[in-house]
Amino acid sequence: MSQTLNVAAIQMVSTPDVAENLATATALVTEAASAGAELVLLPEYFCLIGHHDHDKLRHAEAPGHGPIQATLSALARQHQLWLIGG
Fold first, then answer.
1. What is the pLDDT of residues 46-78, one digit of tens each?
2. Which of 22, 58, 61, 65 is deepest in the core (most CB within 10 A)?
3. Is residue 75 included in any domain, yes or no?
């Protein structure tokens, strides 16, 4: 007996604006879910491309808390899929 898993690997151009990147990721994950994806992979630094290394530290979230984690969790729940944010 063989099983299949529909996977979507998303590519996007991230910006220094976390809210903008989360909106883009939301639209792309929703599109992938509509196409039947059960596992969605977002690219490395999907949520932020900073101008400097310390830009990333400004947006660091404690485990289980923060807008990035909340968005990914809500999307996975809403679309009933596995979601990996790079």
1. 999 878 878 888 888 989 999 999 999 999 999
2. 22
3. yes
Q: Could you give the count of Cα atoms lying within 13 Å of 64 in the half-sphere of its Cβ?
A: 0
What is the tally of structural domains in the chain? 1
Higher pLDDT, 2 or 4: 4
Residue span of the structural domain in which 2 resides = 1-11+33-39+69-86
Instruction: Answer whether residue 1 shows pLDDT above 80.
Output: no
Q: Smallest Cα–Cα separation from 47: which of 59, 38, 33, 30?
A: 59
CA distance readout (Å), 57 to 26, 50, 66, 82: 23, 10, 13, 26
Task: Please give the model's pTM, rounded to 2 decimal places.
Answer: 0.91
In a domain, 63, yes or no: no
CA–CA distance, 15 with 12 (Å, rounded to integer): 10
Q: φ and ψ at 68, to 5 degrees? A: -70, -50
